[in-house]
Design brief:
- By secondary structure, the protein is an alpha/beta fold.
- It folds into 2 domains: about 45 residues, no CATH class; about 240 residues, Aldolase class I (TIM Barrel, Alpha-Beta Barrel), CATH 3.20.20.
- Helix content is about 25%, strand content about 25%.
- It contains 9 helices and 20 strands.
- Strands 7-8-10-11-12-13-14-15 form an 8-stranded mixed sheet.
- Strand 19 and strand 20 form a beta hairpin.
């Protein structure tokens, strides 16, 4: 089996993610779904799903990857992150008996995507890092049928499995949950650096189209200085053309006593990023036309206008060129 290490004490170490869980016979890891069975790490949730949905690709969110196209979204159960604010906690934080879940093979995923004219298949709802084998097998079949693949992930993955995983992904939205080690340890039971390493790897060494999302929780990860440091890191390591989405938090899971994120907080982040000259900045699940539209990085005119997740006007010509000044727009169109 790949991404495991047999230890001398009768345990087997799972090496898919930086948790590197050391498991005794029959024991499952932090994620609930990677399990030591007969000395090997197996994926107990292979072929299981917790729901299928046809979404606009903008909902992932991806704004520069075949805008206005449909994507078939699905996920399984469990997660390798411990986020106290998880928006999908009913499937990620509960050790669900996989016998109770719907079974959908990679072939069936492809068939359903074709039936509903989906341009892409998205591995989402829970982190596809933990169901790597299922995601990769599905992605391989998608490619044979001309269907694109999308990973919506926290990027908490070890370098070797990341090479395989992202080699089969055409696009990824990586959730950069904050920009401090304190935030990651306190609220995610994880670490920031492996996520930054993954983001840098995807941008610099793969053909996978990359966008980032940061969900802002007031008083936790929304300080002016932290937002500035995040944007400066993006500029230095990824350049100025990676789309960045700032989204609003709504009380959930262990953060029920927190308030909804005000739009003014998203607007502040939008302004900080824009003033630092990031070219494509958006406010995700709370937005205005101004903060959800794509502007030409040369002439500044709107080339893709949006109302929420809906595209209302499209001013790109052949070869992704701005209809007004002919400057190419970054992305896949």
């Amino acid at each position: 089996m790949k991404y495991q290490k047999i230890l001398t004490n009768g345990k087997t170490q799972c090496s898919v993610c930086p948790r590197n869980c050391k498991l005794t016979e029959g024991q499952s890891g932090f994620c609930f779904v990677r399990k030591n069975e007969n000395g090997n790490i197996i994926l107990s949730s292979y072929g299981c799903n917790t729901g299928l949905a046809v979404d606009p690709v903008e909902k992932k969110p991806l704004y520069h990857f075949y805008p206005a196209s449909n994507v078939l979204s699905f996920g399984t159960t469990g997660c390798n992150m411990g986020c106290l604010f998880c928006q999908n906690w009913k499937t990620t934080k509960n050790n669900i008996d996989t016998w109770l879940l719907n079974k959908t093979s990679p072939d069936e995923i492809v068939r359903i995507a074709k039936k509903y004219n989906c341009k892409s298949v998205a591995f989402t709802y829970n982190d596809p890092v933990i169901f790597l084998e299922y995601a990769v097998d599905t992605a391989k079949l998608c490619r044979t049928e001309g269907i694109k693949t999308i990973a919506v992930t926290s990027g908490f993955i070890n370098p070797e499995p990341a090479k395989e995983f992202f080699s089969y992904m055409d696009a990824a939205n990586i959730d950069l949950k904050g920009f401090s080690e304190k935030f990651y340890r306190k609220n995610c039971m994880a670490s920031l650096q492996p996520v930054l390493d993954t983001i840098r790897y995807v941008k610099q060494e793969t053909a996978c189209w990359l966008e980032l999302t940061t969900m802002l929780i007031e008083g936790e990860n929304d300080s002016d200085e932290e937002l500035k440091q995040e944007c400066l890191w993006i500029l230095e390591n990824l350049g100025d053309c990676v789309p960045v989405h700032f989204s609003a938090f709504f009380p959930n899971y262990k953060f029920l006593n927190r308030k909804n994120t005000d739009f003014s907080t998203l607007q502040k982040a939008f302004n900080i990023a824009s003033n630092l000259r990031l070219k494509y900045v958006y406010t995700g699940n709370l937005s205005t036309e101004k903060t959800s539209s794509t502007y030409c990085k040369n002439c500044g005119r709107p080339i893709i206008s949006r109302n929420g997740y809906s595209v209302t006007s499209f001013n790109l010509e052949e070869h992704n060129k701005c209809a007004f000044c002919k400057e190419p727009c970054d992305g896949c169109f």
